[in-house]
Design goal:
CATH topology of one domain: Pantoate--beta-alanine Ligase, Chain: A,domain 2
CATH architecture of one domain: 2-Layer Sandwich
Structural class: alpha+beta
Number of helices: 7
CATH superfamily of one domain: GSPII I/J protein-like
Length: about 290
């Protein structure tokens, strides 16, 4: 083999080796870039999570601390509070649990109204649902006319029977006979187990709950909401609601959403109750993620 041929083969080997090393280096750089981005995203997501936790704690402090000036006081009225902490934008809302209908203590007419207005049931189906809920939460073998007790669950082929005790969480109402996933999805955001009232607080209740009040029309509700919003913005006393309602509950439903500069976002949802115990003044009844 001539010296020129040997040089040509060596040149080809060098070129292929260089190309292979280039590919390997490019792949390594791409892999390292992805790992760096993944690490950065994980750090940003963790920062958003802990910032949201801190935002909930600040909200509890603001709600529990008396203020001399009305402008400085935070109220559990659903208004959004926004502020910036470094690279994090924070949005917080708080509303008292009295704004929702308690499935353990709520009046039959309120529950029926919710299942009709929000759930889309007719009056008979809504009353059946209410009777089944009452039968679930009461320690009695007495069955309501349209309710359901142990034998009805067995006939339906279910592997469980009513608890015959108060609901421990809103999610439990999904097990009640007749409660479909669609009906639960529509109505559960407006239910609670933390109000312990027969009514709902109209000064903080959402539109869906206000529409559940008996003998209340959409026109009445919308007019009231407009006047309520105007009073809140002007720091004035809230107007009365035509329907008989409840008061504020000693528990707050708080939602804190944190958005980082790189787009990472985290939402903390919590329900915090006052205890009256100076050693442990607050307890978290719910600590979930959005």
């Amino acid at each position: 083999m001539s010296q020129r041929s040997e040089r040509g083969i060596a040149l080809i080997i060098v070129l292929w080796t260089t190309a292979l090393l280039t590919v390997i280096a490019g792949g390594f750089a791409f892999s390292m870039r992805n790992e760096a981005l993944a690490t950065q995203n994980a750090v940003s997501a963790s920062a958003a999570r802990w910032t949201a936790n801190g935002a909930v704690e600040r909200t509890v402090y603001e709600l529990a601390t008396p203020r001399m000036a009305m402008e400085e006081a935070w109220q559990p009225n659903g208004l959004t509070h926004t502020w910036q902490e470094g690279a994090a934008k924070i949005e917080v809302t708080a509303v008292d649990e009295g704004a929702f209908i308690d499935i353990n203590t709520g009046r039959d007419d309120l529950l029926k109204g919710l299942f009709m207005v929000v759930g889309g049931l007719d009056e008979m189906a809504a009353m059946n649902m209410v009777d089944s809920i009452v039968n679930w939460r009461t320690d009695s073998e007495l069955k309501r006319p349209n309710g359901a007790k142990d034998s009805d669950y067995k006939k339906a082929g279910l592997a469980y029977v009513p608890a015959n005790a108060p609901f421990g969480a809103v999610e439990e109402v999904g097990m009640v006979l007749g409660m479909t996933p669609e009906l639960y999805a529509r109505t559960s955001p407006f239910l609670t187990v933390n109000s312990r009232q027969s009514g709902a607080n109209p000064q903080t209740a959402p539109r869906e709950v206000l529409l559940s009040f008996p003998n209340i029309t959409a026109e009445i509700v919308d007019d009231y909401l407009a006047r309520r919003q105007e009073a809140l913005q002007n720091r004035q006393p809230l107007p009365p609601f035509p329907g008989a309602g409840g008061g504020r509950a000693p528990a707050w439903r708080i939602q804190a959403t944190v958005t980082m500069e790189d787009g990472a976002q985290f939402t903390r949802r919590a329900v915090i109750r006052r205890t009256g115990d100076p050693k442990r003044p607050f307890v978290a009844l719910l600590w979930g993620e959005g």
